[in-house]
Input
Amino acid sequence: MKKPKSQVLEALRNASVDEAKAVAFLEAQRWGDAPCCPHCGDLDVYPMMTGEKRNKDYRWRCKGCKAMFTVRTKSVLEETRLPLRVWVYAIWKAASSKKGIAALQLSRECEITHKSALFVLRRLRHGLTEENPQKLTGTVEVDEVYIGGRPRYVSRSNMGTYADYKTPVVGIVQRGGDVRFRVMPRVTAETLGHFVAENADRSCRLITDDSKAYKTVGLAFEGGHKFTRHKHRQYVKPGTDIHSNTIEGVFSLLQRGVMGTFHSVSRKHLPNYLNEFQFRWNTRKLNDDERVTRVVKSLVGKRLEYRESVENPPYSEAAGVEF
Ligand SMILES: [Zn+2]
Output
């Protein structure tokens, strides 16, 4: 049987080369059949015309508050004058590539500067931030991973431990459910405890490796705390479902994305990239069409002004970090 053609994919293909189609695409994704005023919520709005055509900025006017707006208004798209077809292309590629798209590739494919491409992708990732996420339930696995390369020109004996030159990222995943990441300056029982308590419900069953830091963390859970002995190369407790292979799988996608697509990610911007990987994992059961719709919807109502992005990087050591 022939697979039915995806209308969203067809629209994406057209929208990424034609500005008018890009505008129409984003408008349809944001508002559906009922465009509404982002200022007052009024549905009594009309597109402004120049003769037969839409005016050159594709503006709308609201009959209620008389204000003008476009599809960019009150979303992360508002920050630049870059053509919307570039945004559509970036959304498409970021949403459908398993390991993300590099800014250099986007800059080549859309013929924009590397700086503009970084700007767009930075804002897309900011837009993917989950708002008021629900607590995870059931069986959850927690583990940490160290992101970053080895320091160059340093002898092995002077390198110290992983924690000295790599950036620790802690992840928690619900089996069959969502994942959450966080960059941590130091992984201790206390910081882990805060992170796990914020993200998992008390009724959970917690599964970790045999790191000491999890011992006190695990006491808080009604479902109990089980662990495998990684030090003894035990990855599954024989005859049980006790393993942390789900979170290991999530981390392997993350590490392959960082290695293969982005090559190196600064500690400062790592939380921003984690947003993207988190979104991709949490929407893994959707198809590409649904995922694109989800991205466009999540860009609305968020802003990342240039100054804000420079003054408040997603992670800063001095500011005591995001916990
Ligand atoms: Zn209005």
In short: The domain at 139-285 is CATH 3.30.420.10 (Nucleotidyltransferase; domain 5). Confidence is low (pLDDT under 50) at residues 318-323. The radius of gyration is 23 Å. Residues 47 and 60 are 4 Å apart (CA to CA).
